[in-house]
Automatic annotation (TrEMBL):
GO terms for biological process: chromosome segregation. Keywords: Chromosome partition, DNA-binding. It comes from Marivirga aurantiaca. Residues 1-32 are annotated as: Disordered. Residues 1-10 have a biased composition (Basic residues). Residues 44-134 form the ParB-like N-terminal domain. This is ParB/RepB/Spo0J family partition protein. One of its GO terms (molecular function) is DNA binding. Residues 18-27 have a biased composition (Polar residues). Pfam families: HTH_ParB, ParB_C, ParB_N. Belongs to the ParB family.
Length: 304
């Protein structure tokens, strides 16, 4: 399998955070307890068996087939991009980023793996894990939105700081965060890519949840484009109607309703009766099966 081209970092990104983690921990107990901090500047070969999983890893599912493909690539080409870990003790490390590469390396039968060794506290671990997760190519809009929200709440970041971390402006960040206000059904459809980010951004402009769900269902059932959904939402927000309202049905006269009820009782099914102003009309007698039809024909004394 051909190696993927290296991706351009987003904003300050993970590398900047790693630099921050080294700087901010110079006076920490962890640094005082670890004698070889200078090794953090280079790449180390460490035993995979000494690496603990990242408890702050936001990604819980790894595609088995994709892992096996990566493992085959590692057997041929080795690890192209080192993982990043923090050192807990002389023979214990904890993943910061690269869990997928680590799992694939195990499948490939490797005993050691190249790694950058860094110093980081728990909050920095969480922040690094979330930002690395955001930088993946195949995230859906809801996964990005949830990661943004976690960075704001659990890492105590402001939106401007978050934008700097992930290389996005405040408007883009806010557009993702607004998705979290949508009803669960719409969030799930967005996560499963049944609708796009454009569809969701249009629907969220409707304040009434029931109307949001109505537009969502119409979008799914009629496979509406983003432009059509935007037009539909615009009409709802401005108070316009997009469909002709059906005229109110006239109340059936008492005599006609009485006849309809008697016919329904006689045939054992709900009979439809229409009568116009000239006393012309029609009678509809529904049936549910061939046997039901024969039953009605018997009542009509019709021989076939």
């Amino acid at each position: 399998m051909a190696a993927k081209k290296p991706r351009k970092a987003l904003g300050r990104g993970l590398s900047a955070l790693l630099q921050d983690s080294e700087t901010s921990n110079k006076s920490s107990d962890l640094e005082r307890n670890i004698s070889d901090v200078e090794s953090a500047a280079g790449i180390n070969e460490i035993l995979i068996s000494q690496i603990e999983v990242n408890p702050f890893q936001p990604r819980s599912h790894f595609d088995k087939e994709a892992l096996e493909e990566l493992a085959e690539s590692i057997k041929v080409q080795g690890i192209i991009q080192p993982i990043t870990v923090r050192k807990l003790s002389d023979d214990s490390y904890q993943l910061i980023s690269g869990e997928r590469r680590t799992q694939a390396s195990k499948l490939a039968g490797l005993k050691k793996i190249p790694a950058y060794v860094r110093l980081a506290n728990d909050q920095q671990m969480l922040e690094m894990a979330l930002i690395e997760n955001i930088q993946r190519e195949n995230l859906n809009a809801m996964e990005i939105a949830i990661s943004y929200q976690r960075l704001l709440t659990e890492c105590n970041l402001k939106q401007e700081q978050l934008g700097d971390r992930v290389g996005k402006n405040r408007t883009t960040v806010n557009n993702y965060l607004r998705l979290l206000k949508l009803p669960p059904d719409i969030q799930l459809a967005l996560k499963e890519k049944k609708i796009s980010m454009g569809h969701a951004r249009a629907i969220i402009n409707i304040e009434d949840v029931d109307k949001q769900l109505d537009v969502f269902k119409k979008t799914i059932n009629e496979d509406l484009s983003v432009r059509k959904v935007e037009a539909l939402v615009r009409d709802i927000v401005t108070g316009k109607t997009t469909e002709k309202e059906s005229p109110a049905k006239k109340e059936m006269p008492y005599e006609a309703k009485n006849v309809q009820n008697k016919l329904s009782s006689h045939f054992g099914t709900k009979v439809g009766l229409k009568i116009d102003g000239q006393n012309k009309g029609e009678i509809k007698i529904p049936f549910l099966s061939k046997d039901d039809l024969n039953r009605i024909l018997d009542l009509l004394e019709v021989d076939l």
